[in-house]
Amino acid sequence: MPKPTDIRILDVQYDFEEHQYRTPLKFGGVPTDHCVLFNVRLQVQTRDGKEAEGRGSMPLGNVWAFPPRYVPFDQSLAAMKNLAELAIDATRDCTRCAHPLELSEVLEPEFLQIADELPQTMQLTAPIPKLCTVVTTSPIDAAIHDGFGKANGINSYNGLDEDFIEADLSYFLDDEFAGKYLDRYTTRHPKPDMSLYHLIGALDPLTEADITERLNDGLPETLPEWIVADGLTHLKIKLNGDDLEWDVARVLAIDKITAETQAKRGVNTWHYSADFNETCQDVEYLLEFLNRIQEKEAQAFERLAYIEQPTDRDLEAHPENKMHKAAEIKPVVIDESLTDFETLLLARDQGYSGVALKACKGQSQALLMGAAAQEYGMFLAVQDLTCPGASFLHSAGLAARIRGVTAIEGNARQFCPSANDGWRDEFPSIFNIADGTVGTQVLMGPGLGH
């Protein structure tokens, strides 16, 4: 039965916005020095005639979503821009009136079809990965959810139960979810605040000795400076995955420096996550890494909260990379591999024990995968794509509303602070980090909360 709160799309507008990075950031062994934001403005109308504008924004993270090992950087970025524009046209042509989850179910196959046809049109040497498509089109999905909430005068996270959508989760997942709706897996109010995971990139200086020339731009530049300035208690460590000695030494150096800094602050408890960005050749590398950390510094090992996607994202092509043994030691979360419910099930079969949710994969997917992960008792994290401004607010909202998530990653303040200009004044508790936390209590407005 149709709901009066269902929305139809009246019009869609967009623009691209480029920002230079303050310092280079290394993704999977590839440095990048700028980002391009894809911004979407979408006019919607409910069945009973209420109208509103929804907004979405996300970096076109081509180094991560369509890596240079597939096609050169310039080609992948051009493909994402082309795909974005064609997806806007398809969205504008959508005539269905429905809940945002149902609209996403209709639009995603169209987006994937466009992506399937683009390589021939653009003479690309590789197909566009599904991950690239969901990242590119995620601002459209965000804008739909945002417009739905605003048109109905509610926070979008409060429009996920059977009063607002006819289809239960079995329609989007499988029969195990019959009779269940997303309100079971999300909260009606955001968590008041959340710990922030600060990124330590493989190129980042740890101490003064690592700096050849200071930026002198008013922001911290060494790890101790960042810890003191923002009161950090959660650190995400980027590792190389192909040099065990370097990876182990990097973690131990970070732990030593952090321990000295936290001792001066009187802080006794802090945490790490380790991100290999799928660069480990096999799970044996990860097992040896964990073994060496435990042998050399037991406290550093205890502080390690979870491991993020250690091996190749193509799970079907590498069934030998089973994570069962590693997951018995620390949670191992799927990230680059996660593009739909089927890949989540495959990851579980291969031993992954956690899920990394990202706003850049679409609001609908993040909500659905968050529900499935909770149902299966998996570890949950919400992670970043160096999201500034509206895209970070979107990510923070997800983390603050999905049950079981305890921390949020946010590194645009480190690498792309200029893109946060203006947003800091409007949302100081989100963009000005104090006591190592993000003040998510403010994300209570209509739409996605901001």
Search tags:
TIM Barrel, three-stranded antiparallel β-sheet, single chain, nine-stranded mixed β-sheet, Enolase-like, domain 1, alpha/beta, 450 residues, 15 helices, 19% strand
Number of helix segments? 15
CATH superfamily placement of the largest domain: Enolase-like C-terminal domain
Given as residue ranges, the uncertain stretches (5+ residues, pLDDT < 50) are none
User: What is the count of structural domains?
Assistant: 2
What's the gyration radius in Å?
Answer: 21 Å
CATH topology of the largest domain: TIM Barrel
Report the span from N to C terminus: 31 Å
Please give a structural write-up.
This protein is of the alpha/beta class. The chain folds into two domains: 161 residues, Enolase-like, domain 1 (2-Layer Sandwich); 249 residues, Enolase-like C-terminal domain (TIM Barrel). Helices cover 38% and strands 19% of the residues. The protein has 15 helices and twelve strands. The strands form two sheets. Strands 4, 5, 6, 7, 8, 9, 10, 11 and 12 form a nine-stranded mixed sheet that branches. A three-stranded antiparallel sheet has the order 1-2-3. Strand 9, helix 11 and strand 10 form a beta-alpha-beta unit. Helix 2 packs parallel to helix 4, helix 5 packs across helix 6 and helix 6 packs across helix 7. The longest helix is centred in the first third of the chain and has 23 residues. 50% of the residues are buried. The mean pLDDT is 97.
